[in-house]
Amino acid sequence: MCAVLLGPVLALNAVTNFSMEMAIIAFGAVCTIYCVMGGLKAVLWTDAFQAVLMLTFILVVYVVGISEVGSVTEIIRRASEGKRLNFFDFRLDFETRYTFWNCFFRGVGFGLGFWVAVNLKCKGHSV
What we know:
mainly alpha, 0% strand, cell membrane, transmembrane, transmembrane helix, membrane, Na/solute_symporter
């Protein structure tokens, strides 16, 4: 909740003379009242609407990007020229950007970091 409140509070503080403390209290109160008045149903509908918007605009970005480049085969050709399709390179060279093992260890590291952070948060431990 703190990170969610920080963005609007900083924006409000930048354009008005509100103190940080008052802005935090005001935005916290607005969020609390919104949840209490609308209940969980309103929050769920808002989350569903945001999910639909995000997926829609991800598709729009993909379609516009592909149309600007020309075709998917052109994207693959450019990625191949930039040596970004060397996924099945099994060398243990950590100075090379894209190899199988670099992607594997990066994925495991991000996955474990996310899993640990979410579990600590859910269990109430401070990170």
